[in-house]
Structures are given as structure tokens and as C-alpha cells.
Amino acid sequence: MTTVTVWNEYRHEREDDAVREVYPDGIHATIAEFLDDRGFDVQTATLDDPEHGLTREVLDDTDVLTWWGHEAHEEVSDEVVERVHERVLSGMGLLVLHSGHYSKIFKRLMGTSCGLKWRESGETERIWTVEPGHPIAEGIDECIEVPETEMYGERFDVPAPDTLVFTSWFEGGEVFRSGCCYRRGSGRIFYFRPGHETYPIYHQPEIQTVVANAVSWATPVDT
Amino acid sequence: MTTVTVWNEYRHEREDDAVREVYPDGIHATIAEFLDDRGFDVQTATLDDPEHGLTREVLDDTDVLTWWGHEAHEEVSDEVVERVHERVLSGMGLLVLHSGHYSKIFKRLMGTSCGLKWRESGETERIWTVEPGHPIAEGIDECIEVPETEMYGERFDVPAPDTLVFTSWFEGGEVFRSGCCYRRGSGRIFYFRPGHETYPIYHQPEIQTVVANAVSWATPVDT
Amino acid sequence: MTTVTVWNEYRHEREDDAVREVYPDGIHATIAEFLDDRGFDVQTATLDDPEHGLTREVLDDTDVLTWWGHEAHEEVSDEVVERVHERVLSGMGLLVLHSGHYSKIFKRLMGTSCGLKWRESGETERIWTVEPGHPIAEGIDECIEVPETEMYGERFDVPAPDTLVFTSWFEGGEVFRSGCCYRRGSGRIFYFRPGHETYPIYHQPEIQTVVANAVSWATPVDT
Amino acid sequence: MTTVTVWNEYRHEREDDAVREVYPDGIHATIAEFLDDRGFDVQTATLDDPEHGLTREVLDDTDVLTWWGHEAHEEVSDEVVERVHERVLSGMGLLVLHSGHYSKIFKRLMGTSCGLKWRESGETERIWTVEPGHPIAEGIDECIEVPETEMYGERFDVPAPDTLVFTSWFEGGEVFRSGCCYRRGSGRIFYFRPGHETYPIYHQPEIQTVVANAVSWATPVDT
């Protein structure tokens, strides 16, 4: 059974009432719950845990790590970043969610700035499936509509994904490569755009399906 | 100097007053003119020419072929398609424009259905640059806006492009991989979405720049 | 459970004693047996069956089709090729084995000549794993050694694979991209080079592992 | 005209008579000379120059930087690495040569370990052209033979190249992806394997052709 560690910065939810209303126990609790419901073996870890909850022991026992961070990327210690980096290269899967695009670990793995355009105005996003036969798109229609979200726009400064699974349309006029697969070392990485802290996006069933599919896809092969 | 053959079905312009108003001498004449202005050695050929204007002699003398067709794809002879196919594999560049996505030659080279969604309602398109460092994007801003166009939407059933240069946003809610590079055999292929017959899109300077850049990019190397 | 149809031209084995000695009941029987041993639901079909054994009914019931052909590619009817092509685009997996590189269906899907260099001199091949984290490489060491084989050399005229899993070294001085993944339509295709009729290559356990892994990988997702 | 800065560690040549015999004025002098002969505007810089010869001013004036290093990768200052990294993302081309695979700048851009197998035994390498239509392969036959070289073998722990142009065969039984194109930010990167300090590989005309082609290919587009 795939062992998943759901990592969360867990600051917004403790600092901001509006966020807490959407994710009372933290974004990690919501993600952990729906992954647990789908049969994964799930644990959580957060920034303010000792070693950010990502000791060597925890990582060695993790098949897939999911990463949500936003305002405190710089507080993640370089030592832990290197530890996660090594584990990805040796096979651990990594899901980078939404504002995790600017995390140290994602920038470390991509080698680029990972910059993008953004605008926070609660606009509609439509996530189009570009590769319908990909396992991460299993059970997803041609399009997922997110009623209100923060916009992320191109150019997204990442290496061209090994496989592009989803591309987003935003009401205000932008597009974004929102579901990007990468292989690095022996590990698989999936960047998935949706999921701002002030919108209940991780409560949306199709988004949960994609995250769960991505966890399955990123599970390491036996070697 | 790169020798370009601009191929056009050339039916709409002779049958339909509205189209003739936009392209009085045919889409091919407009494309040929702006390529000639940019220093290419240009000739044209159309469906109703003998052998569609694509004799072995013409093709042997062509570095890059541009292709526009729409209502008469089926009238292109299989023999000429095979001839063009062979030339592409042996190095000739090919630009497939707009509704050329359903041409025999493009389907032959892609190996897929090349299907897509479409809607004709004169909506706005924004063509976002996804690879700003690519030679086909040279001189292009982060986005080209086409005020009125036919919509093409995903899923576009083509192989994942070797390089994705542009992605389009449409007012009505769709996205589209609108600038796709492929290598096949020793030849280079660029699919470029804009260019419906009832809109003056090939008169738009940024679109002309992309087409000219793509011709340069697709020019065969000496071997 | 994945349903596999193992297709074989099945001519060499009936015409040539040396081949029959290696594959007494045909290459398909050997492949079917080791896939059955690994828990797949397997059936076989051959060129000389009515409709080559590939009726619409059989194909509709097939998750993954494996293809071995060599001397009689031209005898495969265009109608059956179109039928298989449609099924791949709608999600069926396809494994193309060794000399199947020149089959009508592979050329139809690739859009290129699929040509390559070859030499038959019983030389050693070493199949190097280029993507150790890929599910098709699961359980495979850094290299599979095939003691005696026919050489296939670059340039292999195919589109750049979406993922390159294996690259072969040949004693006589050539290299070859020998494990190539493609997505076409909603289907997944894997080309795997080893497997000449006069060498017992499909009896080799590591080769069997790769074929079985590839069947799993190419199994369609639920849609 | 493309401005090239040829960077060299320049230690082996000063420390070791055998190396000095092959490259009396340093590897950089040899590379600079053949690029100058081909019409590029060339300057050189070495590790022991102030700021390694790579001041902001020099880099701002450089279209393409070529990088050769081996024994002193760790002596390159992190500040200069960041400076080069930024310039690549903003468009400067980068050619990474041979043992430069382990340079800080290449690892920074790739995000992986960049590890590989190696053996120094003066064996023959055959560099096969996998993409004959690519501009970096212009003028190159199907294969370049290097009579004596150090072996580099897979698995090469890099991201799958955006385009794989060459693959090497080694006498001792290994293969290697020896010509790899990457886009990162707005810049283009080419890794080219040949070129050990104790063999006269940069004196070989075909190798010089590839390096010169790669400089042309990596020259930034106007933006």
C-alpha cells in the first residue's frame, strides 16, 4: 500500500479566520482525509514540527510526499530540502500543489525560477484535459470547472513537462499548464495548480480525484 | 535563401464574397506577399492546379511548404500526399495552418485523428507564448490578441508536440495548443492555429511574424 | 484484469525448422504463456485466422494488443489496420515487438518510415535502462544482456519517443533506442526491440519481465 | 554576430605534461581558435581569473558560454554560479562539455545529480546521430568515430532531454546520451559528451563542427 506524507506549511489556517473557516484543521487534514478515504496509508507533517516533520525516518517510510506552502517558503531549512531532494532522486514521488511552485524543493528540482503571473480576484478556472488517456486523468471529464480561484498565468518558467496532462483557462484571459509530470532521478513529480487557501478547492471531488490519481501515478516502482 | 511554396485550397475565396473581401487574391497571395516582403523566395500552388501545383519538381525545389485547406481536404490526391510526406521525411519543412489540422498530409504525419472542438462565433483569442526563448516566438510579446476568430478547443488529438510554443485562450471558455513543433524524419513541422478564412488574421503583423519565424525555423539544414 | 491479445504473423515457425525448434507452437504461444503465468487474461490471434483473428469483437474485448510480424506485413489487410488504429486511439494499449517496427499499424501510428539499420550475425546486445524509475523498467537491472541477436541500429526513423526507457548497445558498433513509449489518442504504445525468431529471446526471463511490465503500463485507464 | 565566451578550468594543462602536450595553451585556446575560424566573436575566461573571468559585464556581453571543468568544480564560487544561472534563464546559451556534467552550473540547471558511469581506458567511441535533421547535426554523418576516449555510460542522471541529438556507443559495452538539448528559462543548453583532457578530441574536425553548430543553435533570439 502506498504511504503518503501530506506536508503543509499550516500558517494561513492558524492566522486567518477566513482560511480557517474553509480548512478548520489545516489544508493537510483535508487532503489526508480524502486520501485516507481512497485507501492510502496517510500521515501528515507541517512546517512547525521538529525538522518540519520530515526526518530521515519519515521520508524513508514515505512513498509519495505532497507539498503545500505559500508564505513561509524561506523558513524551510536547506537541510530538509536536500533530504527531500535526495529522496525524490532515489524514487519517492512528489506532488507539488498550487503555491508550492515557489517552494525551495520545487525550484531545486526544476532548476528554473518557477515564476508565473497571478491575480487574486475569485474568477472561474476551467481545467482542460489535454491527455485523456493518462492515469492522472482517470475518471475526469474533458474539463473540471473551479467556480472561484486565484489566477495563475503563463509564462510559467518551468522546464517543458515530460507530459502535460491539464491546461487551465481563466475567466480574465490567461492560460496555464496546470498539470505537469516530470521524472527526476528515479522519482516522479506532479505539479497541480488548483488549491488556494481561501477557496474550498480541496473539497471539490474532481480535484480530490486528480490528487489521488497523481499519488498512485507517483508511487515508486520496486527496484 | 529559403524557398517557400505557399499552398492553398483556394475555394472559399472564389465561392464566397465575404471571404473574397478579406483575401481578394486568395489566402496564398496574402501569405506569399508578406513572406516575400521578409526576404523569402516564394511561389504559390493551389488545389486546382495540375497535380495541385505540387509536382515532384516543385517539391524538390521547396525548402518549406505552407498548407492551408478546409472544405476540400478529400480532393487532395493520395499520390500527392505521399509525395509531400516523403519530402518532409527527407527534410522539407511544413507549416500547417488553421483548418489544415484535418488535411490528409497532417493526419498522415501525426498518425492520430487530429480532431478538436470548434465553434464559429467571432470571439477573441489570446495566443500566449509558452516558450519565449524559441526562435518561432522571436519578436513576439507575451501574448498576441486576435480580436475575432473561430474557436478551436482541446482536446486536440495530436501527439504531444516536441516543443509547445503557444497556447491559446478563447473568450468562450476553451484553451488550445496553438503552436506545436514536431520533428518527423529529417523534416520539421509547425502547426499554427490562427487563420480562418472569414477573418483578416493573416493581415495581422504579429501573425505574419510567427509564420515567417516558423518558415526560418523549418528550413532544412544542409546534409 | 487486463485482457491481452497476443498477435503473431506465425509464418516463420511453420516454414522453418530452425525457428520451430525455438518456438514450437509459435512465438505467440510463448508470449501468451509467460503473460498467463503472470496473471493476465490472454488470448492469441494470427495472420491466417479469419480477419487475422482481429474482429471488431475481439478488439473491443482487448485491453492490450501485442504485435509480432516480419515477412508478411503487406498481407495484413488495410481494413484490419484501420480497426486496430481506431482502437488504439480510443485507448487500447499496443506493444510492437522487434520486426513489428515495419508493420502497417506501427507505421500508421508513427507517421514516419520506421526504417533502421540491421545486420544478422548473432552478436551480443546490451539493453541499458535509461529511465530506472519507469514502471516498464521495474525489476530490471541497469542492463539486460542478450547473448545472441540480430542488430538494429540508428537512425531509427520514428518520432522522438514521449519516454525513452531503454537504449541498446551492439557488439558490432551500433546503438538503438530499444524501449520507446508513445501516447497516441487515448492509447499507449510501447516499442520493444528484442525478439528475433531465430533466437530464444522471448524465453529469457528479463525480456519477459519487460513485456509484462509494458502490458501493465499500456492497460487503458477507466474513462 | 554571436559573442562566445569559452570558459575553462585550466588546471590540468598547467599541472600535467601529457595534457599540455595535447592542449599547450589550454583547452579554451583550442576551442576559441576553431570558433574564431568559423566566424564567431570569441573571448576566453578561466577559473583563476578574478571572478573566474565571469563578471556581470562579461556575461551581459556573452551570447553563448561554453564550459569545461573537471577537477576543481567545487572552487567555482556560488555567486558566479548564480550569476551564470540567471543569465541562462534570461536567454544566454550554454554549452556544457564532457566532465562539465558535474559542474555546479549544470547540476543547478538540471536539478538532478548528473551522475554517470565512467572508465578511463582509451577505448573507441562512436557518436551516432539520432536526429539527423537537427541544426546541431548539420554536416555530420550518421556517426562520428573518436578513436580513443574516456567512457561515460548510462544511466546518466539528467532530466530527459528536450531533444536527444546524439547517442554514443563505447567499445567496452556501454551507451550514453551524448548530445542533449534543453530549454531552461529563455536559454538553451547543450550538453556534449566528447572532450577529455588527455585525448586530442577538440582537434577533431567533426567535433569542432558539432560545437560550432551548437553555439549557433544556442544563440539567443532577439526579444
From TrEMBL, chains A, B, C, D:
Domain ThuA-like: 4-218
A UniProt-annotated Pfam family: ThuA
Organism field: Halorussus aquaticus
Coiled coil feature spans: none
SUPFAM superfamilies: Class I glutamine amidotransferase-like (SSF52317)
Domain of life: Archaea
Name of this protein: ThuA domain-containing protein
